[in-house]
Amino acid sequence: MLAKDIINHVLPILKSNDTVGDALGWMEDYKVGQLAIVEDSEYRGLISQDILMDANESLPIVALQPECPEVFVLDHQHLYEVLAQSQKYDLEVIAVLDHEQRFVGTILINELLNELTKKLGSQELGAIIEIAIENRDYSLSEISRLIEANDTKVISSYYTSGDELSHYRDILTLKLNRRDISPVVATLERFDYHIIGAYAFEPIVTPDKERFDMLMKYLDL
User: Fold this and answer.
1) Pairing of strands 103-108, 93-97
2) Cα–Cα dist 156/201, whole Å
3) How far is CA 115 from CA 7, 19, 33, 175, in A?
4) Among 44, 61, 171, 213, which is 20 to 30 Å from 133 by CA?
5) Residues 6+ apart with CB under 8 A from 28
6) C-alpha angle 157/163/168, rounded to 5°?
7) For residue 206, what pLDDT band results from cuts at 50, 70 and 90?
């Protein structure tokens, strides 16, 4: 899914001759703390509620200094790129431009997060496992093959680079389509994958239960 697919066409766009009072009213109506300023399809930047609160309500927007005039995404960029840009500048909304740098709309970051949540399969039933892994050993296709050998599929995945808190190890997080994951855990461990977390799994009622319980007890330490 691309940026152009989640543009919010209802969110107001400010013009230079709109007043501070106008902008504050729209922000209150739409429960948002930022709005884009656009003039003749040219993106001028964002204005935030914090700045407006310190200004006279009759003042035109053109009298204020806009924020982030160089911060935007292009309509063909992927949602992950949109999210990275919005997090870098701590935005509530982000402007979308076309290939000719003309303004085409804004994206509400909350709506972007909701869409990404759906894409990650968080609403699907199934267990979640975390695997500590060395970058040089990482192969999602190999891990998926081992999981699928237990009649289980990977719904979604994301990869987190290591830091001091994780002792510099990378972490692969997988959402699976089943909650009875003891065979999956046993297979991955057999191939020397280090499971550091398991969530939303069903109680284990197989011969592997004792071994699995020991693993979960270890993870809680």
Assistant:
1) antiparallel
2) 16
3) 12, 33, 20, 17
4) 213
5) none
6) 90
7) very low
Burial of 174 (0-12, 13-18, 19+ CB in 10 A): buried
The Cα 191–Cα 97 span in angstroms is: 47
Please state the φ and ψ torsions of residue 32, each to the nearest 5 degrees: -135, 150
Identify any residues that bridge with 107 across adjacent strands, giving them in sequence order.
94
Using alpha carbons, select from 119, 20, 124, 35 the residue that is nearest to residue 78.
119
The gap from C-alpha 143 to its chain's centroid, in whole angstroms, comes to: 23
Token output for 38: 């656009």
Cα 2 versus chain centre, distance: 14
**SS3 call for 49:** helix
Cα(105)–Cα(121) distance, integer angstroms: 27
* Tokens read off for 45: 């930047």
pLDDT above 70 coverage of the chain, percent = 86
Please tell me the pTM assigned to this model: 0.68
User: What pLDDT digit, counting tens, does each position of 192-201 carry?
Assistant: 999 988 887 7
For residue 69, the Cα-to-chain-centroid distance in whole angstroms is 23
Q: Distance between CA atoms of 73 and 194, rounded to whole angstroms?
A: 38
> In this structure, are residues 99 and 2 in contact, taking their beta carbons and an 8 Å threshold?
no
The enclosing H or E element of 74 equals strand 73-74
Between CA 178 and CA 151 the distance in angstroms is 9
